[in-house]
Amino acid sequence: MAMTTPTRRIHYSPPWGNASIIGVAGSSGSGKTSLALAIVASLNLPWVVILSMDSFYKPLTPAQSAAAFRNEFDFDSPDAIDFDVLVDRLRDVKNGKVADIPVYSFQKHARLEQTTTIYSPHVLILEGIFALHDQRVLDMLDLKIFAEADADLCLSRRLVRDVKERGRDIDGCIKQWFGFVKPNFSKYVAPQREIADIIIPRGIENKVAIAMISSQIQKTLQHKSAQHQLELTRLGKIAEDSPLSPNAIIIKQTNQVKAIHTLLMDETTSTEDYIFYFDRMVALLIETAVDFLPFTPSQVTTPQGHVYMGLKKTAEISAVVVLRGGSAFETGLRRTIPDCRIGRILIQTNYRTGEPELHYRALPANIKQCGLVLVLDPQMSSGGAALMAVKVLVDHGVPEDRIVFVTYMAGRVGVNRVLRVFPEARCVVARMGDDMENRWVETRYLGC
């Protein structure tokens, strides 16, 4: 089954492809984090996230680290922030890519080896004392906010935070405040007030300002949703006018396969029989998909002493289950590839707009190094969720030609929608169905 590449690639931009970034600056202790949390809480959406500039302090030299433990290092100067790394990560977020965020320990005064990951936010809130300082950051911001608070209140908040969360003593905190924080506020922080779009006094107590910002973000999200729906409609029209992609592999319709189809399509089939034969069909689909794994010639000796020239796999296989339906594939997958590493993605369709939405992802470690990645979903109709699932893998570094979407039933438009955007990927299908057929396969399998 040699891969053939169909016609030219069609561009697709997911909802997070041009993330909106909001900057929140202000004095240390002015309530920036609390303000950002209040905005996120008022929206109650999984794709609005907060990024703290505290993660981007520069690694310290031994001399600087010793000074930091004596409370004599200036963390409140722009020179302490690694703006180059910050700008690079913001560009990744802006372009819909995976952004690896450093982790800084104030107890150790050092950047830790591990990182955290930000991926697919529609809106990102950047909060920090210098969020509006660097012109490269300003060029990426869609909204600039300055949080204002009384200096005495800022000092008391900083004392509580540094003692409780950063392991410092009160004398050291006061030493830092008067030695660095207060003079740097006038020199570096206060000038950001002049370029802010919105100045918010009283922080989280200012309910009107929070409601106004939340309303603006809601409008931004609604605009992104409308644009994404138009994008899917455009792709659907292109797919309708195209023949079935040569990278869509329909398994051979043998008598056994037709007999299993008959049982699965029969509404009188018992739940026990349905599960048994669906697991058998999944095994056939997985066996077909595994043929795309790279193999290399291998010579072995048989128990009778003969030499056999065969093949052995040269890379590992991972699978990504598209929840909830993809969980119906797991038993058949385990029977076929017992040691397969499995990840999960939750993509749900918004029943008000019909738009697929990414809610959760947990991918196998080092998935981009796998020789083959199977994406499992029992049914593909419009192809919107499948398109998003493949896009997630590509954004995480999985080469397109190593991705195989495996499904029991699919519509021609849905398959073409995916393979016109990702022409080097492949799709293994057991049965071609109607383009807009309602999902029923996992309901029969799971019983609910």
UniProtKB/TrEMBL annotation:
User: Which residue range or ranges hold the Phosphoribulokinase/uridine kinase domain?
Assistant: 21-209
GO terms of biological process kind:
CTP salvage; UMP salvage
Its catalytic activity? uridine + ATP = UMP + ADP + H(+); cytidine + ATP = CMP + ADP + H(+)
InterPro entries recorded: P-loop_NTPase, PRK/URK, PRTase-like, PRTase_dom, Uridine_kinase-like
Record carries keyword Calcium: no
Q: Which family does it belong to?
A: Belongs to the uridine kinase family.
Quote the PANTHER family the UniProt record gives.
Answer: URIDINE KINASE
Its name, as the record gives it, is Uridine kinase
Source organism lineage?
A: Eukaryota, Fungi, Dikarya, Ascomycota, Pezizomycotina
